Amino acid sequence: MSTWRPPTTTTRAHWTLPNLPVSPSPLREKNYTSQKHFIRAALAETESIVLMNLRGVIRAVEGSEPGAEANVTKLLGSEVVKRKAALAAQIAGPLTAVREGEEKRVGTWLMATLGASIGGGTSEIIRNQIAERLLGLPRDPLIK
């Protein structure tokens, strides 16, 4: 009997939109209304990352090692979360720059997404791994 281990891919909690900590205003309502298409796209992208993470969980439960698709999940996930943070900042408007109280959450999240995209390897490294492992391309000659 194999022992279950948590997957090494990122969990769904990392890709959820935060509750925007700002009170309603006409400006933000206008920003929200004009961004509905992008919000829907962000939610759809989030759901696709959730399903990709679920595949990693299934592999872990079956006792398999994470496959190369974990790299794809990490790369796409970090890109999606950066877009979602930028979208939240657009909706919050100038309050994104506030650095105290509840309002600081959107700006803090926006900055954290930049650092989080480095965790587990930069996007360039992940792209090289995908090219080599999934696409079968030769190793980058500049990497020694």
Write the layout of secondary structure elements.
Blueprint (H helix, E strand, L loop, with lengths): L25 H9 L1 H26 L7 H24 L11 H13 L6 H11 L11
Helix pairs in contact: 2-3, 3-4, 3-5
Count the DSSP helices.
5
**CA-CA gap between termini:** 41 Å
Biggest beta sheet summary: none
The tally of beta strands, per DSSP, is 0
Radius of gyration: 18 Å
Percent range for helical residues?
Answer: 55-70%
Q: Regions with pLDDT < 50 over 5+ consecutive residues?
A: 4-27
Backbone structural class: mainly alpha
* Estimated share of beta-strand residues: under 5%
Kindly report the name of the CATH homologous superfamily. Butyryl-CoA Dehydrogenase, subunit A, domain 3
CATH class type: Mainly Alpha
CATH topology heading: Butyryl-CoA Dehydrogenase, subunit A, domain 3
CATH architecture: Up-down Bundle
